[in-house]
Amino acid sequence: MNKVYLLFAVAGVLLGQQSWAAEVTKKPSSCVENLNQEITPQMKRARDLYIALTGSPIPFCDERIERMTIYLAAGRARDAVRVAIADPDFYNIKIREMASRICTFENSPRTSVNDCIATYVGAIRDGIDARQLLTGNFWYRIDEKKAPQATASNLVNNILKNGNHYNQIDDLELSMFHVLKRVDGQMIIDPTNNNNAIAAQDPAGVITSRAWMMAHAIAGTNRRLVEKSFEQFLCSPIREWADNTMPDTYVGRDVTRTPGDDPNKYLVTCKGCHAPMDSMRSVFAHVDWNENNGGFYRYNPTQVTPKMNRNTNETPQLTYLISGDTFDNYATQGANAARFGWRGPTQGEGMKAFAGMLANSEQYNRCLTTHVFRTVCGRKPEAELKQIIDTYARDFDQKDNHDVRVLFERIALRPECTGDGNQ
Ligand code: HEC
Question: Which residues constitute the domain of residue 259?
Fold first, then answer.
């Protein structure tokens, strides 16, 4: 008897250790499906919801589907979806998919993990107010204590200068849900010594992540940083918020006022985009992307990056130059007032103030709701669903503490999303 117990204890320790190690990597569901079992509507609905929220196949016999079925049969739909939301695959697959679209230049749902994606996954796992995704001074990385096999962890050489640290997530099949840890205080490469890291100045959530800067601060004139911030965080492609009635006070001198010798063309087309976009791009005055050593985000508060005032010879008659990082949002008039629903200041200084303006707008909530719908329902919300998006965005803003998981819970249960609705 004692011997048997001892055996169990030893096996338990071994298995315990093994499952601890396995915990941070993916593991399949294991149960044997009874093919003669009757599939009730609740079972089918439970499985549909689980798959929509986790992106993973699952058999009916799985304990999670059993629990969800019981909740659905008891009229407790929210409790049912919470079973799926507690699943690591909700974070590792679905939140990752949503974040990939937001964090990449091509809006691709499948891409290698980077610091921007990891920060979305970690912050949503930790229930952090979604506005802090744009304004917070924190980031997420692999916790070596949870994943000792992940050894590429040097801040300068594996994190700030290349993607090696985050590539380990796929290479070692790590579960982000289990291994990500929050780090307070963003870091950047010291602009005066490329082998050194210093505390980031003017940190602004994922906008100052390496991945975001790599996608949008490379080459160009830092206009794309504004264009893409509006496209990804406010779901507003620039053509939709262009406004040629605004003054061109801040339009860069590299933008000719006589394209093809036609001043009217400038007034009708160029100015429409450039008047509002250029009124804000100065917040990135100190930002650049350095292509050396794998590429890193560079921020130098003592310098206006030369590309901000490039090709001034296009408009020799003008004197305007960018001299600092103050901004004055010109996308506030006419249709743009209702589109964005700005709340709070639309002028300010620096990236964090700019990011705060975006995060506090009504449109930020509507846009996140749209991203959630697309991620869980597998398609963009049709125009006739605008009212639903508006309603859930308002609740997200006013009742649900800006917790993205609650949006997923509520949207997944919509009949428009995963089938027959309020079971
Ligand atoms: C639909 C909006 C839109 C219109 C209209 C538009 N632009 Fe732009 N422009 C942009 C965006 C966005 C960028 C930044 C592109 C990037 O960096 O990828 C840009 C960048 C530029 C640049 C900097 C190019 C560089 O090398 O980075 C110049 C110069 C410019 N535009 C001039 C013009 C002129 C002249 C017109 C009118 C003939 C015009 N633009 C019309 C949106 C627009």
Answer: 220-360
